From TrEMBL:
PANTHER family: GENERAL SECRETION PATHWAY PROTEIN G, TYPE II SECRETION SYSTEM CORE PROTEIN G. The lineage of its organism: Bacteria, Pseudomonadati, Planctomycetota, Planctomycetia, Pirellulales. Signal peptide: none annotated. Its main location: membrane. This is Type IV pilin PilA. It comes from Thermogutta terrifontis. GO terms for biological process: protein secretion by the type II secretion system. It is found in: Membrane. Keywords: Membrane, Methylation, Transmembrane, Transmembrane helix. Pfam families: N_methyl, T2SSG. The chain crosses the membrane at residues 12-33. It is a single-pass membrane protein. It comes from the Bacteria. Residues 34-115 form the Type II secretion system protein GspG C-terminal domain. InterPro entries: Bac_GSPG_pilin, N_methyl_site, Pilin-like, T2SS_protein-GspG_C.
Length: 154
């Protein structure tokens, strides 16, 4: 008689594997959840730093901060002249673009629209309704994310 070989797993073996996978999932999934929050926070800080540095560079070139136009800062992603007027890149419009494409988004609400702060010269105290990504003070050049728990000094 030839020996008989098993060709399947027993129920106990399957249950042991399922229990081990459940334990691993319980340990690993919370770590990935905090990684997502950390990634959003890092993206927000990077985007905010990019905006602040390019707004400051615009001020150095033009002597003033860019002004809001229809909840946007088009002077940052277009060529401008010394007066801040937008035009085709060339000798008449030697400055910029300071940002490629469009303004970066706030990763918490996926919006890149910009609204003015309620009180110029002061840090925002609350979220502006309407889902804007950023709050901007054209008098100081300061820009903040439109979610107050992540404000930082300009």
């Amino acid at each position: 008689m030839s020996p008989r070989f098993r060709k399947a797993f027993t129920l106990i073996e399957v249950l042991i594997v399922v229990v081990i996978m459940a334990i691993l999932a319980a340990v690993i999934i919370p770590q990935f959840a905090s990684s997502t929050a950390d990634a959003k926070r890092s993206a927000l800080e990077f985007n905010m730093h990019t905006l602040r540095s390019q707004i400051e560079l615009y001020r150095v070139h033009h002597g003033t901060y860019p002004q809001l136009v229809n909840n946007d800062l088009p002077q940052l992603y277009n060529a401008t002249n010394a007066a801040g007027e937008i035009g085709t890149p060339g000798p008449n419009y030697p400055y910029g673009p300071y940002i490629t494409g469009q303004l970066p988004v706030n990763p918490y609400n996926n919006s890149n629209t910009v609204v003015p702060v309620s009180t110029p010269g002061q840090k925002p105290t609350g979220v502006v309704a309407g889902g804007a990504g950023w709050q901007y003070d054209a008098t100081t050049g300061a820009i903040w994310p439109n979610n107050p728990e992540y404000y930082s000094s300009p």
